[in-house]
Amino acid sequence: MTGSDEGAEAPRTFSAELAGWLASGADRSLGDLGMVFAERTFAVAILLLMVPAALPLPTGGVTHVLEAMAVVVAGEMVLGLSTLWLPARWRQRPLGPAMTGRALPTVVRMVAFFERFSRKRGAAVLRRGWARRLVGVALVGLIVAAALAPPFSGLDTLPALGAVVVCLAVILEDAAVLAIGLLLGVVGAVLEVVLGVALVDLIRRLW
What are the two backbone dihedrals, phi and then psi, of residue 52, each rounded to the nearest 5 degrees? Predict the structure, then answer.
């Protein structure tokens, strides 16, 4: 082994990058993502926006606003845009202490967990434009499923978690993680429909 090989540093993991961004001390916003995460910006943005719905954290009623923003970002993936576009108001708004102090540290731990088992499975396919567009379509479906869940039912958790894991698959370039995310999202959407129909039937019987 040469001296240059010995001195070479292992590439930083995504969890380390995200933790470093959180520890930067600046007012972090969605507009900062492009400068830090480059081509992964779309997936990172959706991940951050869907975390509040995926985790049992108080959101102050802003979950649907974040989901609307996430749909816009996923729609840009479907259109094949290479640069994230957001209205100035969304782009410049700080994520806030509830997100950076509670939700994102949980995300860092989740990412680190997946990194231990993740491999570059199907990475060449996931990098293709048509694959990114299909992932964008899947994300739109999962986000909409989470948004349509009955309020305070908790049924938005699985579709939202599915969207988060799908975003991790894009970031980690792992088709196996993608399959896990899609499975979580589909199961959540099916449960939402089944339990929703049962609830409507119960209400009709009571009336």
Answer: -60, -35
Is the distance from CB of 53 to CB of 156 less than 8 angstroms?
A: yes
User: Which letter does DSSP use for residue 152 in this model?
Assistant: T
- Position 57 scores a pLDDT of 64
Q: What's the mean pLDDT in 11-33? A: 76
Calpha distance 57→66 (Å, rounded): 14
CA 194 vs CA 1, 82, 102, 155, 188: distances in Å: 60, 38, 32, 11, 10
pLDDT in tens, 149-199: 877 677 888 999 999 999 999 999 999 999 999 999 999 999 888 887 787
* CB 121 within 8 Å of CB 170: no
Q: Is the pLDDT of residue 44 over 60?
A: yes
pLDDT digits (tens, 9 = 90+) for 73-111: 999 999 998 888 888 887 777 776 666 666 777 888 888
Asked if residues 49 and 70 have their Cβ atoms less than 8 Å apart, the reply is yes
Residues composing the chain: 207
Q: Calculate the alpha carbon distances from 191 to 137, 151, 153, 194 in Å.
A: 20, 15, 11, 5
What is the C-alpha radius of gyration for the chain, rounded to an integer number of angstroms?
18
Which residues sit opposite 29 in a β-bridge?
A: 94
Structure tokens at 89: 């108001």
Name beta bridge partners: 94.
29
Q: At what angle do helices 129-147 and 175-206 cross, to 10 degrees?
A: 30
